[in-house]
Backbone:
């Protein structure tokens, strides 16, 4: 595991020496200087990655970010890249059969690695489009949860009711769960999200009460990666047991997409969905309005829609019961049931 690697290496490794001054583009002279310094220290790609992890930890990056960056740099190393030769990285990314989002993530990790040495590069351009998420029928989610082992089932039920990110749920401490009042508090949000609090069902409260408290965290000290591996094994077994191939389309993040879409359908309030998900900007939440509209098209026929520009018009619509939908250019859209 990355954290263990960092702990083991801390006894023998020294943090890489960054170049002083402003960031520099990787020209031949700069490369020779940096590579020469590291060769003198006898560092390989593995040593560079371990030292990079230590630096991120010292800069108080989250465990999730450190694990992600480490995984991406290790991927580049496994592909034979010289971490001080960006052309080898560009070639590896061009040949890598992964999504544009995945490649962008690897490039971002490499950019941060170079920054730690006072270096920059010209990364390739990626064509990233946000896909419409798969929203399964609720019965599929419930069937999958019921078919999983107790601990995994409880984890999935928590995701279903709270729409927590997997990383947030994975490090949920017992102290932030109030089973008597059926509350879960998220005080350590991921991705710059906002803290939030959730009311949970009696069912989930019972499932949580049945878990053994081995340490301060509900799911123990296993990482997000380990938790994901446990889920995918359980899902494979459930698909076979229930003879339902649709379950293969359900990932851990699907529970968050499902909850957000259903919450908007129930409330028609994008601001409420935004706060529930912990988004800092509304634009991220608008995807679920589009998804809900497509799923419940027939039920949404009974609306009057207005598009306005001025604050006076906005105030007038809100006073007569219209609710905000989205903004496109200068126009702001509102709707009200007929």
Residues:
């Amino acid at each position: 595991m990355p954290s263990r690697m960092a702990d083991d290496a801390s006894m023998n490794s020294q943090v890489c020496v960054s170049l002083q001054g402003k960031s520099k583009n990787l020209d031949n002279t700069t490369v020779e200087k940096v590579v020469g310094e590291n060769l003198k220290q006898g560092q390989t790609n593995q040593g560079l990655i371990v030292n990079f992890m230590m630096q991120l930890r010292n800069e108080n990056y989250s465990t999730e970010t450190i694990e992600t960056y480490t995984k991406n740099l290790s991927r580049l190393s496994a592909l034979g890249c010289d971490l001080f030769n960006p052309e080898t990285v560009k070639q590896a990314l061009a040949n890598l059969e992964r999504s544009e989002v995945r490649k962008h993530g690897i490039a971002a990790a490499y950019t941060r690695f170079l920054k730690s040495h006072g270096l920059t590069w010209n990364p390739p351009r990626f064509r990233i489009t946000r896909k419409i998420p798969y929203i399964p029928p609720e019965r599929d989610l419930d069937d999958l949860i019921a078919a999983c082992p107790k601990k995994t089932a409880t984890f999935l039920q928590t995701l279903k009711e709270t729409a927590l990110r997997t990383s947030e749920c994975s490090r949920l401490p017992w102290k932030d769960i109030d089973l008597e009042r059926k509350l879960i508090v998220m005080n350590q949000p991921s991705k710059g999200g906002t803290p939030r609090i959730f009311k949970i069902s009696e069912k989930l409260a019972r499932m949580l009460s049945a878990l053994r408290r081995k340490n301060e965290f509900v799911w123990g000290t296993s990482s997000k990666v380990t938790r994901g591996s446990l889920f995918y094994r359980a899902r494979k077994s459930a698909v076979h047991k229930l003879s339902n191939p649709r379950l293969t389309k359900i990932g851990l993040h699907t529970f968050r997409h499902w909850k957000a879409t259903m919450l908007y359908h129930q409330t028609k309030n994008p601001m409420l969905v935004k706060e529930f998900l912990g988004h800092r900007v509304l634009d991220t939440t608008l995807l679920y309005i589009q998804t809900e509209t497509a799923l419940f098209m027939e039920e949404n026929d009974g609306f009057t829609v207005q598009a306005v520009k001025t604050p006076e018009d906005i105030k007038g619509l809100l006073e007569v019961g219209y609710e905000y939908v989205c903004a496109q250019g200068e126009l702001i859209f509102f709707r009200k049931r007929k």
Observations:
- Residues 1-24, 38-42 have pLDDT under 50 and may be disordered.
- The chain has three domains: 2-120, 138-257, 302-338.
- The longest strand covers residues 331-337.
